[in-house]
Structures are given as C-alpha cells and as structure tokens.
Specification:
By secondary structure, the chain is α/β, with parallel strands linked by helices. Helix content is about 35%, strand content about 10%. It has an 8-stranded mixed β-sheet with strand order 3-2-1-4-5-6-7-8, with helices on both faces. Bound molecules: ligand SAJ. Ligand SAJ binds next to helix 7.
C-alpha cells in the first residue's frame, strides 16, 4: 500500500519514516517547500531525527512533495497537521479542512483517510465525513475514514512510533478494519475503539489528565509555600506510594502546543452540548496564573533586598516551554518576561536552545539569548530559572548570582536561592 503522510512535523515525519522503514512506499506531503527540499536531500530539520535516518529512508523510497495532486497514487492518507487555537481560544481546524479541501479533487474509491491531529470529539464525523461525501464517496463502502490520535514523544528513545500503542476508531466497522490493517504495519499494538469520537475523546482525556494534575500540584505549591512546606519534598514522599499516585511537578506554568491547548478543544465542544466543564477550566486558570506567581515571588525576593523590580536587571534562564527542547510555544517564560518588562525591569534571557526571541502573536521583544559567563552573572540583580535545561551549570549559577528564583527545584540550595 502506498502511504501518504500530510504534515511533516514532529508527528508526521517520524510516522512517514517508520512506514518507509517498514517497507512501504511513502510520500510525505508538506506545504513548506524548505521541509520538502531538506528531506529529499537527506537533511533533517528535527533535532531528534538524525539526517542519516532521513537519508536511508529516502534511499529506501521515501520522498517528500508539496504537490497534493500526487495523492491520486495513494492507498492511505494520514493527516498530521496542527490544530491550534484561534485568537479567541477556539478550535482552529483550518489546517485540517484546508488539507482535505486540497485533497478532494485527487481522491478515488478504495482509499483510506486517517486523521491524527488532536481535536474535539465529533470532528471526523461532523467535519471530514460531509466534505468527503461531496465527492460522492460512500464512507465504509468505497472510501474508509478513521481517527487515530498521535502519541509521539519527541526524542523518547524508550517509546518509539512502533512501540507506543495506537488507538484507532473507524466511521464504520469496515473503516476500523482498514485502520487496523494500516497501522499494524507500523506499530506493535493497535487499540481498536468503537467510534472515531471515542478515539478523539481518548486523546483529549490523556492530555487533559496532565493539564489538571499539573494545575493541582501548582495550587498545592502555593498552599505549601504559604505554610512554609517544601512541596517538592511532599511530592517525592507521596510518590513513594506504590499505587494510585502519579508524580507531577509544579512549575512556572503550562507551555507547549498540546497540554495548554487540548482542554480548550474539549470545553468548546462541551459548551456546544450545553455542558459546563468548570473543573477543567479552573485548572486552566490555575496554570495560566503561575507566571503571575513567579513575578510576585521575584518582587518579594528583590524587596527583601531593598530593590524594586523597576530598574532591576533580571536574567531569565530558559525560554523554551520545557527542558531540553527548542520549542517556545505558549512558554510561561514569555509571559514572565512581558510582566517584568511592564514593571520596568531590564530583562535578558539565556537559552541554548532558543537563540532569538520567537515572533509571537501577542508579544514580540527584540531579544537574543545571552551567553552565560561567571563574570556577567554578577551584573544581574536576580536570575529566574524558568526552564531547567540540562546544559545550564547550576553550581556556577548558584555561586555567582546575587539572587536566584527557582521555579523547577533544580538549583543547589543556598541563601541566595528562593523557590517560586
Ligand atoms: N509540566 C509541569 N509539570 C509536570 C509536567 C509538565 O509543569 O509535571 C509542564 C512542562 O514544563 C510544559 C507543559 O507542562 O510546560 C507540558 O509538558 P509535557 O511534559 O506534558 O510535554 P508536552 O507538551 O511535550 O506533552 C507531550 C504530550 N504528548 C502528546 O500529546 C503526544 C503528552 O501527552 C505527553 O505525556 C508528554 O509530551 C510527555 O510525557 O512527554
């Protein structure tokens, strides 16, 4: 079967390569000509995918294209394009519907289409199916439509595309059977569920579970702080419970393009059904308020030293949304920088993975990452550890900086280190 993967990002590219490595003819589709060109020349643009892997699979028959007309040759179409939020924090399916619209003229009976992008329950049935039926295709008879959420964890050596169980829901039983046959070629375990809605909801539960539990430990951190209790010691002690406790760590807030976003896909759809998801929404409020907490704790620590935030030189350590990644989407560091600047602080940032401050929808500061040397550290009134990249030299930071605000429990203890 000739496989086509649409969207060659951190989800689509590993999936396309895995199919090619399993011996399938694979065509990768992306609207970004630079991605297409890089792949066809054996280069990788994802830090966790080595160029050798791209080169080997291109030699094995994988190729990339931007020409959607080539879809006519495909037996299976897998869509892995982004599902972000709109300005009004509502689902933005434009990449998904745009891809399907582009595909429509090139579809033919006998093909299967699988949506992998995270989305609200009902998308496959209510949005994709009607689009496909405009081409006179009869789903389950001469065309197969399924939903199978992605669970890629970039760089995770233990859980790869092949070893992560893959949930799959079909519009009809025949669609599900086609989906199982398709994915069993590239993953060890396919988990069939009774409908595409079930599969869509499964993914949302997985990620909302994380969001609300992170919100819980963030709120517990604030309570513990007021009580003079070290929340990290509490969590480590609670984690000794051998069953029924999953460890989450408090932090400066929720970043990334999944965990802060996915709850909105559910709550938006729930509201359409007249259901109020105040528990999930409250956890979002707690997580979104964490940057305020970090700024408040910074102000308190500077005040202790007779320094107002206004006019202070502050160094932000880490701009990416979590350690050892270069992605800064929804990163709490951005919100913290914006608040500190608004209060009159002079702010620099240092992040070995993020050389320049990314263009953002809401903010754009013309900042470059500064290199850390022991000498330069003494020029700052305070440094805030927002993202605990492994590259940072935590001993030097603690020894050379007047005041440190630690949001990740990663710095050595010291009189000059305050938790936030
Ligand atoms: N975070 C905390 N405390 C935690 C865990 C995370 O504050 O205990 C913060 C992180 O700093 C980050 C945000 O939450 O800002 C999200 O972190 P994440 O570890 O959930 O990482 P993501 O955003 O890369 O989530 C992805 C998800 N994968 C998919 O959607 C396929 C998620 O389902 C995975 O569980 C997660 O990776 C993972 O475990 O690496």
């Amino acid at each position: 079967a000739h496989i086509g993967v649409f969207g060659l990002g951190y989800v689509g590219l590993p999936l396309a390569l895995a199919f090619a490595e399993a011996g399938y003819p694979v065509t990768g589709f992306d609207i970004d000509p630079e991605k297409v060109d890089a792949l066809n020349h054996g280069r990788s643009y994802l830090s966790h995918i080595p160029p050798t892997r791209v080169r080997d699979t291109t030699q094995a028959g994988f190729r990339a294209t931007a020409d959607v007309a080539e879809a006519i040759n495909l037996d299976a179409i897998i869509i892995c394009v982004p599902t972000p939020l709109s300005r009004h924090r509502e689902p933005d399916l434009s990449f998904v519907t745009g891809t399907v619209q582009d595909l429509l003229p090139h579809l033919k009976p006998g093909q299967a289409l699988s949506l992998e992008s995270t989305t609200y329950p009902g998308t496959t049935e209510e949005v994709l199916q009607p689009l496909l039926e405009t081409r006179g295709l009869t789903i389950g008879d001469d065309f197969f439509l399924l939903y199978s959420p992605e669970r890629e964890d970039p760089g995770n050596a233990q859980f790869t595309t092949r070893t992560i169980p893959k949930v799959c829901g079909g519009t009809t039983t025949a669609c599900l059977e086609v989906g199982q046959a398709l994915y069993s070629g590239v993953v060890d375990t396919v988990v069939p569920v009774s409908s595409t809605k079930t599969a869509e909801m499964t993914k949302l539960l997985e990620n909302i579970y994380r969001a609300v539990n992170i919100g819980l430990v963030n709120e517990m951190k604030i309570v513990a702080d007021k009580m003079g209790i070290n929340i990290h010691e509490v969590i480590d002690a609670a984690a000794t419970k051998p069953f029924g406790f999953t460890k989450f760590t408090p932090g400066p807030g929720l970043g990334g393009h999944c965990i802060p976003i996915d709850p909105y896909y559910l709550t938006w759809k729930a509201r359409e059904h007249g259901i109020n998801t105040h528990f999930i929404e409250l956890s979002g409020e707690v997580n979104r308020a964490m940057p305020d907490w970090v700024v408040q704790k910074t102000a308190d620590a500077l005040n202790e030293r007779g320094k107002p935030i206004k006019g202070s030189k502050i160094l932000i350590l880490g701009l990416a949304y979590k350690k050892n990644v270069s992605d800064s989407r929804e990163s709490p560091a951005v919100e913290i920088i914006a608040q500190l600047k608004a209060k009159g602080a002079m702010v620099d940032y240092s992040d070995p993975h993020v050389p320049t401050f990314p263009k953002k929808r809401d903010y754009h500061f013309d900042m470059q990452s500064v290199d850390i040397t022991p000498e330069m550290l003494s020029h700052y009134d305070c440094a805030i550890l927002v993202t605990d990249h492994d590259e940072f030299d935590y001993e030097t930071l603690q020894a050379q900086t007047k005041l440190l605000i630690d949001t990740r429990n990663r710095l050595p203890k010291g009189q000059n280190v305050s938790q936030a």
